[in-house]
Amino acid sequence: MNNAIKLPQKLMLLGSGELGKEFVIAAQRLGNFVIAVDRYANAPAMQVADCCEVISMLSAEDLEAVVTKHKPDFIIPEIEAIRTEKLLEFEQRGITVIPTAAATNYTMNRDRIRELAHQELGIRTAKYGYAVTLEELIAVADKIGFPNVVKPVMSSSGKGQSVVLSREEVEKAWNYAIANSRGDSQKVIIEEFINFEIEITLLTIKQWNAPTIFCPPIGHRQERGDYQESWQPAEISDNKIIQAQEIAKKVTDALGGAGIFGVEFFITKDEVIFSELSPRPHDTGMVTLISQNLNEFELHLRAILGLPIPHIEQLGASASAVILASEKSDSISFTGVAEALSEKDVDIRLFGKPTAHPYRRMGVALAKADNVQQAREKATSAAKKVQIVRE
Question: Exactly one of 18, 22, 62, 264 is catalytic; which is it?
Answer without folding.
Answer: 264
